[in-house]
Structure to design on (1104 residues):
């Protein structure tokens, strides 16, 4: 491994100052970064270890009803927080459908948001990848790409964002709190990740030194608790990234959809909010036909980037199913096979 | 006294109470406590770390390596390249016997496949060596890579597998197809699969003058030793290999591969002990793999569902520089009776490491295609797949006409089907649903694997303190040799298992042959059996020739060894303990050697195979196409079961691999570069615990008097056969969609709603 400086700042301000310089990266659990370093994909000069910073590992309900999740809360701790799982069941289900138990015990909220794509050509340093090195070219475009993006991709990059966690967060209008050189600011999660266009190497809105310190769910996010699901189709039941996933959340009043939220995973370089689909569901009776219509709207702009046309049809079907599951109501406990199409028939009852 | 080989007509058949017991692993506590020493756990004083730099191109040559940059890196001691390396005693391209395969050990700058070693960096730390390898920044002259089953002109290889004929004929296949009432003609594809044993290949090599100490996982201690001896030009007795535990072998650690040789070369170059451990992605190239296949099956039946012809052709690949051909079509030799059978192979050359043995080589790939095709044929005949198989049950081995040494396959079908509840299966596909609306499918496959024997020797000792020892350079790959062979040893010595010092896993012990071909327990067991019989015979001589012994004169009647005593066969009240016999004779111990080997006469007369029947249930989401295996039942007849607990584990492992073959496993090769794009455990999918359903294994009783003295057929590989086809057939039964390209993918099942 390339030698690097290791810095353990005492405060967030010290962390930001240490991470501003080129070649510096933040280290949280390292579940993605250390793999990237071992593979020579990332070769940082300086690691700024934020895991010892105080005050970043809490889950707190704010006065206005928002929930604030510290960036260092582990995926497992968040998913297993009873109040959290009750209020935001689709988020907990998504967390438990990701990675493996060992990884979830280590991986953090902030790290999950900022994990890199799993595009094999990004990881393979012998391949050309615009995301790894600007201007190099994209070997995925004409390569083995059956799992690549069908929305928002460009000729420069067809990679997808791999997070499960981000998908329901996005549907619930999560906000990201950032500490940077010029103090604290916040942006919508939807604005954190960028589509590739001609600059796939720029993956997020973060500037040098920016540290995600918390993720906030607004008060309205609780309103979907009784009708919220995450559904993930994958090639094995655990420890696999989504081929396509969807988070669906409904607020149902008097038998009609008062408000719908829908986001897709595994389809684009960012978690994908399907607002057009949400719009067609507003005020309608939650029927199979309505969900079909929403699914068509959600994928209107989709186009294959390679051998992956099936993902468009699969995404439509997942949208319909996720909405159907959400309309049927959140189960009392998270299923033993979280987010799996087989969740209801696994034999075991809960996670 | 001459050494005995009693494997064909044993003089003392004395099975005590150890064989047949479901003992837990005797090395289990060591492993759980982290005290089992695997090769890479060794750290001799002064040891350095070696890391391979591997080619990122699949074909061409290395034009430059920045050795200076690597050497400048702190901690780097030396960089081994084609220009700077110890000379080998012979050219590793020379195939000195059929079990020698060509390896890349820096003999030239040529690159023949991606991940081929092109240099080795030796450093004081693993981190420094790793970074040194990066700093070499190789440049290449690249040629277009040959990739895939259509990479070039095909040819007919001289042999397939290990010396099998490329083509086999019985009767007139074309006539049989022409005369057939019903026919199918289908093409199946299986992907390249790579070894992912938990323990990667590893070596710690230490030279002491011209002596060489090696810690290395190997499935063939003496084969490895002989190869090292010839490559480095040193005598066999100057080499010591320790291999007490393997973290899985599966065929990849049977023959000496290039990387461990590089470790030995590196140790020689720097004059210090060196450790070289492969990174996970480096397993995808130089250590063998399962080649892809494309198999065409043409089958015909008469009006009653009897086969009239079975034609099985397999296309596979080998490397550009050596020959190994997955004998996939040979799967059609043994299972189904047909008046006409033809099996044939052809191949193309591609830029990969040479494909080699991977659990059930040929049998696994051939089985999924054959069992799928049989399922298709049964459906074409409108018959239940089990009824169809019974209708075409082979009473003699179809391709040779030889009787089977034993064959309890009917009982496997019956017991497996009963346990599974097969009788309730709908004939038509896509008829069964569960309460949640998921499609349910039931499929089956027949399992088979040859009962092989190799050569082995063992040394047995009985001591005056009442203990005994059994020494054999056997290999525990995780299958449980430390336990199962010790059980055999205890029975052969007539001692309690805790009174037997069982030694294995070291090259200074008698040669146990190779732990491959599912034949290790049978082969090593036969040697242990012979050695035990021989040492007991020596002990018996001491007693029966001594008038002071209660056994005096019992030579003709014979004696039985049991619980540390010899007793008269015809009068069990008369006996004497080993302690008494040896004390009176005034000797500290008696020892003897014995061998185990195949019996050519029996092989000439009989076809020898293990059999089984696997039944699988899958559920498929009708809209989303995701498949989940929900139940599997396997009934296997494999002769004598030495340890039912370990055997069950072996069969579980095989069945899981079969399910993996049908649904998960595939190396994804970039069609332009020839690089494998998922060379890691995150993306090379094998089933995880959450994918594995309740598994039910039935071991069907089977007595085989011909295979070997102990009647053991072996269970190492058979579990994967039958299982893969059973899962694939269940997917068809659930969905009505016949997927002929494996693994079965979600998109294949999205076609219907």
């Amino acid at each position: 491994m390339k030698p690097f400086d290791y810095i353990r700042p005492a405060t967030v301000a010290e962390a930001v100052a240490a991470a501003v310089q080129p070649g510096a990266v933040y280290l949280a659990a390292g579940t993605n970064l250390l793999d990237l370093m071992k593979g020579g994909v990332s070769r940082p000069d300086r690691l700024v270890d934020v895991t010892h910073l105080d005050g970043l590992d809490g889950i707190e309900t704010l006065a206005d009803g928002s929930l604030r999740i510290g960036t260092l809360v582990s995926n497992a701790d968040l998913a297993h927080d009873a109040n959290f799982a009750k209020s935001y069941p689709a988020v907990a289900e998504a967390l438990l459908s990701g990675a493996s138990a060992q990884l979830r015990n280590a991986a953090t909220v902030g790290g999950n948001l900022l994990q890199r794509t799993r595009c094999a050509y990004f990881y393979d340093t012998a391949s050309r990848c615009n995301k790894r090195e600007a201007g190099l070219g994209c070997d995925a475009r004409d390569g083995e790409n059956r799992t690549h993006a069908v929305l928002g991709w460009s000729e420069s990059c067809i990679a997808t964002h791999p997070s499960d966690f981000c998908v329901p967060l996005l549907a619930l209008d999560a906000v990201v709190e950032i500490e940077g050189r010029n103090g604290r600011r916040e942006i919508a999660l939807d604005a954190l990740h960028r589509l590739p266009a001609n600059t796939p190497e720029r993956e997020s809105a973060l500037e040098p030194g920016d540290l995600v310190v918390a993720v906030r769910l607004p008060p309205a996010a609780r309103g979907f608790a009784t009708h919220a699901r995450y559904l993930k189709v994958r090639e094995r039941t655990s420890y696999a990234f989504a081929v396509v996933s969807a988070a669906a959340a409904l607020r149902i009043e008097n038998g009609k959809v008062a408000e719908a939220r829908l986001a897709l995973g595994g389809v684009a370089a960012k978690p994908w909010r399907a607002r057009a689909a949400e719009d067609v569901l507003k005020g309608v009776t939650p029927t199979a036909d309505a969900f079909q219509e929403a699914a068509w709207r959600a994928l209107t702009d989709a186009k294959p980037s390679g051998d992956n046309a099936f993902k468009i049809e699969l995404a439509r079907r997942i949208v319909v199913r996720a909405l159907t599951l959400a309309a049927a109501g959140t189960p009392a406990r998270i299923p033993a096979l979280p987010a799996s199409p087989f969740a209801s028939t696994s034999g075991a009852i809960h996670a | 006294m001459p050494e005995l080989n009693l494997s064909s007509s044993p003089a003392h058949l004395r099975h005590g109470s150890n064989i047949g017991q479901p003992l837990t692993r005797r090395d289990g506590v060591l492993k759980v406590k982290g005290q089992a020493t695997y090769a890479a756990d060794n750290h001799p004083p002064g040891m350095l770390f070696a890391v391979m730099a591997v080619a990122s191109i699949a074909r061409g040559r290395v034009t430059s390596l920045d050795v200076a940059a690597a050497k400048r890196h702190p901690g780097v001691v030396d960089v081994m390249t084609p220009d700077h390396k110890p000379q080998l005693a012979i050219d590793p391209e020379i195939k000195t016997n059929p079990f020698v395969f060509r390896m890349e050990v820096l003999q030239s700058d040529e690159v023949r496949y991606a991940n081929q070693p092109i240099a080795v960096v030796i450093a004081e730390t693993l981190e420094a060596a790793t970074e040194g390898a990066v700093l070499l920044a190789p440049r290449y002259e690249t040629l277009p890579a040959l990739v895939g089953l259509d990479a070039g002109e095909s040819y007919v290889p001289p042999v397939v597998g290990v010396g099998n004929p490329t083509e086999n004929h019985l009767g007139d296949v074309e006539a049989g197809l022409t005369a057939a009432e019903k026919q199918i003609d289908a093409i199946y594809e299986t992907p390249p699969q790579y070894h992912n044993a938990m323990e990667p290949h590893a070596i710690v090599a230490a030279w002491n003058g011209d002596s060489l100490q090696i810690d290395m996982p190997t499935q063939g201690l003496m084969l490895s030793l002989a190869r090292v001896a010839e490559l480095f030009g040193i005598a066999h007795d100057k080499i010591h290999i320790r291999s007490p535990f393997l973290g899985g072998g599966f065929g990849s650690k049977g023959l000496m591969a290039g990387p461990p040789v590089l470790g030995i070369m590196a140790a020689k170059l720097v004059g210090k002990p060196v450790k070289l451990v492969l990174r996970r992605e480096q397993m995808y190239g130089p250590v063998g793999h399962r080649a892809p296949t494309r198999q065409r099956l043409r089958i015909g039946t008469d009006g009653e569902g009897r086969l009239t012809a079975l034609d099985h052709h397999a296309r596979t690949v080998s490397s550009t520089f050596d020959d190994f051909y997955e004998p996939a079509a040979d799967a059609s030799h043994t299972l189904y009776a047909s008046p006409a059978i033809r099996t044939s192979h052809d191949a193309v050359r591609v830029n990969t490491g040479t494909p080699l043995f991977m659990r059930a080589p040929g049998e696994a790939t051939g089985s999924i295609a054959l069992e799928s095709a049989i399922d298709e044929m049964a459906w074409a005949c409108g018959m239940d797949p089990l009824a169809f198989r019974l209708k075409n049950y082979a009473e003699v081995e179809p391709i040779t006409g030889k009787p089977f040494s034993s064959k309890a396959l009917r009982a496997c079908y019956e017991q497996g089907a009963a346990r599974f509840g097969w009788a309730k299966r709908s004939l038509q596909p896509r008829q069964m649903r569960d309460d949640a609306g998921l499609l349910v499918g039931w499929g089956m496959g027949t399992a088979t694997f040859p009962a092989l024997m190799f050569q082995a020797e063992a040394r047995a000792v009985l001591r005056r303190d009442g203990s005994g020892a059994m020494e054999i350079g056997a290999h525990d790959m995780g299958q449980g040799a430390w336990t199962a062979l010790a059980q055999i040893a205890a029975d052969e010595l007539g001692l309690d298992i805790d009174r037997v010092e069982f030694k294995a896993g070291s090259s200074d012990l008698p040669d146990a042959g190779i732990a491959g071909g599912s034949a290790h327990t049978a082969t090593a067991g036969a040697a242990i059996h012979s050695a035990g019989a021989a040492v007991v015979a020596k002990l018996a001589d001491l007693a029966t020739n001594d008038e002071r012994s209660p056994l005096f004169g019992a030579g003709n009647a014979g004696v039985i060894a049991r619980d540390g005593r010899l007793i008269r066969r015809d009068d069990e009240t008369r006996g004497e303990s080993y302690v008494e016999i040896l004390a009176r004779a005034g000797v500290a111990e008696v020892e003897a050697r014995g061998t185990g080997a195949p019996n050519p006469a029996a092989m000439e007369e009989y076809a020898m195979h293990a059999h089984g029947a696997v039944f699988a249930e899958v559920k498929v989401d009708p809209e989303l196409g995701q498949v989940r295996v929900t139940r599997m039942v396997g009934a296997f007849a494999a002769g004598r079961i030495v340890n039912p607990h370990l055997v069950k584990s072996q069969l579980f492992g095989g069945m899981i691999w079969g399910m993996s073959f049908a649904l998960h496993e595939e190396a994804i090769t970039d069609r332009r570069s020839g690089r494998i794009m998922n060379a890691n455990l995150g993306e090379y999918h094998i089933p995880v615990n959450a994918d594995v359903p309740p598994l039910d294994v039935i071991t069907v009783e089977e007595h085989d008097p011909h295979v070997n003295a102990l009647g053991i057929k072996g269970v190492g590989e058979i579990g994967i056969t039958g299982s893969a086809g059973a899962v694939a057939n269940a997917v068809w039964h659930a969905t009505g969609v016949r997927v002929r390209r494996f693994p079965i993918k979600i998109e294949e099942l999205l076609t219907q709603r």
